Amino acid sequence: MSLPPFPIRTECPPGTCVCDREALLQAPGGDLRILMLTRSEEKKMLERLENLGSLADLRRMQERMEQQLGIRLSITQSPNEVRSLRGIAILVHEQPGLCRKTRQAIPAAIKKSMDTHPQITFDLLDESGLFGSS
Fold first, then answer.
1. pTM of the predicted model, to two decimals?
2. b/e for 44-63, b at 16 or more Cβ within 10 A?
């Protein structure tokens, strides 16, 4: 196993995570970008996600996360009426090397921004055509 030429995330304690970090490191041609997300970088990313000010900021972060780390997000609304943030589903797609706790922390950080700035939620719903002009 050869380590990549950049600092990588330390492994989680045995039995606490299902990220398959070791399998990713051993896979020839595996996408190692996610391993660049060290714990300190993860804290910075989550802080940015908690402080989003607009839907445009969210979309920029979503694009950067996919480009730089390979993290893919799906943000959808419930097929029923959306009356609160519970009606918004934020899914972080599974990928080798992505820690389970990180997959849970990303949606929580985004929802915190949406709670602080409700306009993000309104713009997201408007983008989906739920608030069509009359």
1. 0.84
2. ebbebbbebeebebbeebbe
